[in-house]
Structures are given as structure tokens and as C-alpha cells.
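Re: the 288-residue chain
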Amino acid sequence: MPVNADAYTHGESEFDDRILDSAEAEWPAEAGRYRLIASLACPWASRAVLVRRLLGLEDAISLGIVDPIQDERSWRFTLDPDDRDPVLGVGFLHEAYDNRRTDYSNGVSVPAMVDIPSRKLVTNDFHQITLDMSLQWTAHHRDGAPELYPEAWRDEIDEVMARVYRDLNDAVYGAGFARSQRAYEKSYNAIFDCLDWLHDRLAGQRYLVGDHVTEADVRLFTTLVRFDTVYQGHFKCNRNKLAEDEVLWAYLRDLCQTPGFGDTVNQRHVKNHYYQVQSDVNPSKIVP
């Protein structure tokens, strides 16, 4: 999470290859070929875990979960026997990055889609991974899987997601990692303007766009479900708790009861990661 002298900026994904529904593609959408590596602490990675579950891709794309606590060698597989991922056989996610590009020296991020035969990273593009699960893996979707990115609603979904990303998903980090009062207040104001806008939008409808769950709800959910746990206190986004907003709290509770949403959340992983890893924000590393 790079920062400049004043404000946080989110780095771009450096590996943006796509897994496509084509036998001629470099990375074809083949069941059993890829492993999704994720942290249940990370909202960006949790989107992919959630969409995989919603679409019923569990048998097509295997899942590896990293320890919520990284060390200087990156995300590690210390939750697994022998501290190695049982499918890839690696102890640290950076090994899959190294297998892809030996000269790579930047950050190691999740979610990561890894090619099992070569143990190479394919993509860490968190924006595109979930969209491609919806659009490129349709042959492997479960019966009755929701259409998360329907063409008829796509423009509105994109518009909503763009604001939610800028003013909420990313802005909570802008507040938490701000290095000046001005930068903090800019992010803080954007966050609560966005939450007020979402309150008004959801006061009259169950979902962000249309009459069923879409990618827009997925991307909002993974931030909202962490809001009172870490962002409200740890990142100083404290005008009010989400639980004090009856509309957004009802929306979040509704989603939590939907299979794929609440059952992919691990708040212990969330707390341990934010409060112990982000020592610039929490030097004591005490976990509430």
C-alpha cells in the first residue's frame, strides 16, 4: 500500500493476464487447473472468495487461504500442514510470483490466481478476477447461479462500483494511512458522503442495482462488513458506526444471511491482520 508524502495511493495490479473461455487462450478456463489464493482478512481478496462461492465454482477453482499475518517474505501458508500450500507446495505466495517473473521485486498481493501445473502466478488483478469468474467460467457455474454482471444493467453497475471504489473501498485506506490532517479529512468526507448516498439509494430498494445481487453488492459488502470491526476505530472513520445506520445495517444483515456472503467472513482474520500487521497505525499491535 504505497503512500506519498501526504496521502495514500492504491498500487495497480502488475499481472493482469486473463483466464478466458477459449481453448486457444494462453490461460483457458479449465476446471482444476487454477488455484485461487486469498486472505480472509483482505477485502479485495474476499471478493473473489465470495464470488467463487456464489457461482458454485468450488470444484472448478480450488482455494488456498494464507495466514492473516504476513512477514517480510510476504503472505505465508502457515495455516496448512508443514507450513506449505498442499496443492502448490509453496510456503510463501512470492514463490508463485517468482515462478512467473524472476526479476519481480514489488509487492505480493492477494487475490492471486495461480496455474497449478507450472505454479506460476497468472493474475492478481482484483478488479477483473471476479468479473471473469462471472463471464468466462459460465460452463462451470452451479444451477441457479446469480448473474452478477448482467449486460442490461452493466452501465449502472459500473457507475455505482466506480463511486464505491473511489469514495469508500479505497477511501478508508486514505483515511487510515493519511499523513496529514488535510489528506485524512479529504478521505473522511468522501467516505461519509458516499455512505449517505448509499443510505438514500438503499432506503427504497433491496440491492444496489436491479432486483437481485450483483457484482456491485459484492464490492460494497466486503468493505461494509469490516467497517465497525476495523475501519471505524483503527482507520478513524468514526462519524458513526454502521450499526447506527438502520438502512445500511439492515442491508448488511440481509446480505450476511445470503449463502456466500456471511459464511465467507472471518472477523478474527480481519482483526489480526489490520491490528498486528499495520503497525504504523497501531504501534502496540494490540488486537481488541
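The beta strands are 34-38, 62-65, 112-115, 120-123.
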